[in-house]
Design a protein that fits this description.
Layout (H helix, E strand, L loop, with lengths): L1 H20 L13 E7 L2 E9 L3 E6 L6 H4 L1 H6 L5 E7 L17 H15 L5 E6 L1 H12 L4 E7 L7 H10 L7 H11 L1 H15 L22 E6 L7 H10 L4 E5 L6 H4 L1 H12 L1
């Protein structure tokens, strides 16, 4: 069984690297209609991008080592700017929300959820909808459960509520960034510098594996029944980084949620199929 998991992890590593390659976005690609700023939240200067002028506020929550710019360029550029005000943030220790350096105490997802909600309150939004990818999806679930009166609607994809043996094998497969291709490493090295990038990736693996040692590998599974907002779960059926049973579990335990499957979608389905994804999101949020 261990050999099978290692083999799967090797395949998934190659696919993850191709996913990360799609995250490199030149600064000029975001255009002049996007503003960039920092604001003090919970003692940290959090960086965010903002676009649009609509009444419906939408917060984009990035994945591991991600930032608003690297993870959500097609959403920042193309979500309807008359209907929505889109904010894409860099969680503390990621992107341009440094210092501080990123760390991973056992409550790091809860900390991110509080930071995210407090950021949007600081920006004077009365309510907000959440679009959370991967780690950002976990953060969104926690925020929706803990701050139900503040969350309007939520879309998540590539998220998991617990950690399994299969997940552990995947995480170990990406821990050593020296094994990543040069093409994959370069955009993250440009953002972080090699040392910070490598050290943070290794710390992330150790951080996420903390949950493997908790009962049922629990990250936020106990919070799912407390989610009250309308929730859309999108899952790419070719996502080998987050197996489909995770999406099914969240769907079963978030009351009234919808599960939308994208047959050709992989982990970065919002980048590979941006037009389809954006249309799906706009329809759900409206």
């Amino acid at each position: 069984m261990a050999a099978v998991l290692r083999g799967r992890a090797s395949v998934r590593l190659r696919l993850l690297l191709s996913t990360l390659e799609a995250r490199a976005v030149p600064a000029s690609a975001l255009g002049t209609s996007v503003t960039s700023a920092k604001v003090d939240v919970n003692g940290v200067h959090l960086h965010y991008l903002r676009a649009g002028e609509g009444d419906h506020a939408v917060l984009l929550l990035p994945g591991m080592l991600g930032s608003g710019k690297t993870d959500f360029e097609p959403q920042i550029q193309s979500l309807n700017k008359k209907r929505f005000t889109v904010v894409a943030w860099d969680p503390r220790g990621y992107g341009h929300s440094r210092p501080p350096n990123r760390d991973f105490p056992v409550d790091f997802f809860e900390r991110d959820a509080k930071d995210a909600v407090d950021l949007m309150k600081t920006l004077k939004f009365p309510k907000v909808s959440l679009l959370g990818w991967s780690d950002g999806g976990i953060t969104a679930l926690i925020a929706a459960a803990k701050y139900p009166s503040y969350i309007n609607k939520m879309v998540i994809w590539g998220a998991n509520a617990y950690v399994t043996d299969e997940d552990e094998a995947i995480y170990h497969g990406i821990q050593d960034v020296s094994k990543w291709s040069k093409r994959t490493r370069e955009p993250l090295e440009a953002l972080y510098g090699y040392d910070y990038f490598a050290q943070t990736c290794e710390k992330w693996v150790n951080g996420i594996l903390q949950f493997k040692h908790l009962p049922d590998g629990n990250i936020c599974r106990h919070l799912l029944p407390h989610v009250q907002c309308p929730t859309l779960i999108v899952h790419g059926e070719k996502d080998v980084l987050v197996p489909g049973f995770h999406a099914d579990f969240i769907h079963r335990h978030v009351k009234g949620s919808r599960l939308h499957l994208m047959p050709e979608g992989k982990h970065n389905l919002h980048l590979r199929f941006a037009n389809e994804f954006n249309a799906l999101v706009e329809d759900f949020l409206q």
